[in-house]
Write a structure and sequence with these properties.
Blueprint lengths: L3 E5 L3 H13 L3 E5 L2 H11 L4 E5 L7 H6 L7 E5 L4 H8 L4 E5 L4 H16 L2
Parallel strand pairs: 1-2, 1-3, 3-4, 4-5
């Protein structure tokens, strides 16, 4: 595969496990633990195929990070804590996949493959 993923989550345990599983699937994974760090990495490296972003980051929200993007990148938003209003907002966003934590690793790899397939069919 070789597609590049930027994984943004403030939990070292989540990033370690997800990066390992995705790496085993053949993806190249970079990790950011803060939203602003992710934005810097996107400006520097900019050629990510998929973003996986936690909704609740310590500096900016995952949605704020997505609204700050200058390019259209397939995105999977992950969270264990969303209000009904936040879920409603997310459900209206086009081209955004969502996984509720904790999720099975198979769901993560399936979501990555799905958003990549959808992006290629556009």
């Amino acid at each position: 595969m070789g597609e590049r993923i930027l994984l943004v989550d403030d939990s070292p345990d989540v990033t370690r496990v997800c990066a390992q599983i995705l790496g085993d699937e053949g993806f190249e994974v970079d990790v950011a633990h803060r939203g602003r760090q992710a934005l810097s990495m996107l400006k520097e490296k900019g050629d990510y195929d998929v973003l996986i972003v936690d909704f609740a980051l310590p500096d900016i929200s995952g949605l704020d990070l997505l609204h700050s993007l200058e390019q259209d990148i397939p995105t999977i938003l992950i969270s264990g804590y969303l209000s009904e209003n936040e879920m409603e907002t997310i459900s209206r966003l086009e081209g955004l996949a969502f996984l509720r934590k904790p999720f099975p690793i198979t769901a993560l790899t399936a979501a990555v493959k799905r958003v990549l397939r959808e992006q290629k069919s556009r």
